[in-house]
Amino acid sequence: MKKFKFIRCEKRYTTEKINVDAIEAIIAGFFDDVRDNVPFWASWIKNTKSESISGNITFIYKDEGKIYMMDLFEDDENAPEFIIDQERLIYLLEKWDEFYKKRAPKIILTFDDDYNFLGIYAEE
Questions:
Q1: How are strands ordered across the β-sheet holding 106-111?
Q2: Nearest of 85, 39, 80 to residue 65 by alpha carbon
Q3: What string of DSSP letters covers the chain?
Q4: Between 46 and 19, whose confidence is greater?
Q5: Side by side, which strands form the sheet with 52-54?
Q6: Which band of pLDDT confidence, cut at 50, 70 and 90, is reported for residue 124?
Q7: With b meaning 16 or more CB within 10 Å and e meaning fewer, what string describes 87-103?
């Protein structure tokens, strides 16, 4: 199991790791784009007419109930993507929002070795 930790730094969260792999960088970039604007991102996920969107760091598109995230600045067509079910991402965003509003010192995401999302929790 992989744990990916975000640490609260003033008004935002940053990753605990200095060296991250490509998928972790995409996940970190996505949550840097999200910050405290969960309603916007959840609305986009549920919008059936909008197929893609980009933040400052990530490019995201939807296809058949899945969300595909990649580095916005990556030119390689074989670049890694983080893939998650739409409903799982909505759940993840709702929990992120809950912990973000409580100003939890740490928010931890857990994944299996293939980066399938397992859970999210806050640590004091």
A1: 12-15, 2-9, 106-111, 117-123
A2: 85
A3: -EEEEEEEETTEEEES-SS--HHHHHHHHHHHHHTT-HHHHHHHHH-SS--EEE-SSEEEEEETTEEEEEETT---TT---EEEEHHHHHHHHHHHHHHHHTT-SEEEEEE-TT--EEEEEEE-
A4: 46
A5: 52-54, 58-63, 66-71, 82-85
A6: confident
A7: eebbebbebbbebbeee
Instruction: Determine if the pTM surpasses 0.85.
Output: yes
Pairing of strands 106-111, 82-85: unpaired
**What is the widest separation between alpha-carbon atoms in the chain?**
40
Structural domain spans, the chain? 2-123
C-alpha span between 111 and 7 (Å, rounded)? 18
Torsion angles phi and psi, residue 106, rounded to 5? -140, 140
Could you read off the pLDDT of 3-43 as tens digits, one per residue? 989 999 988 898 887 778 889 999 999 999 999 999 999 99
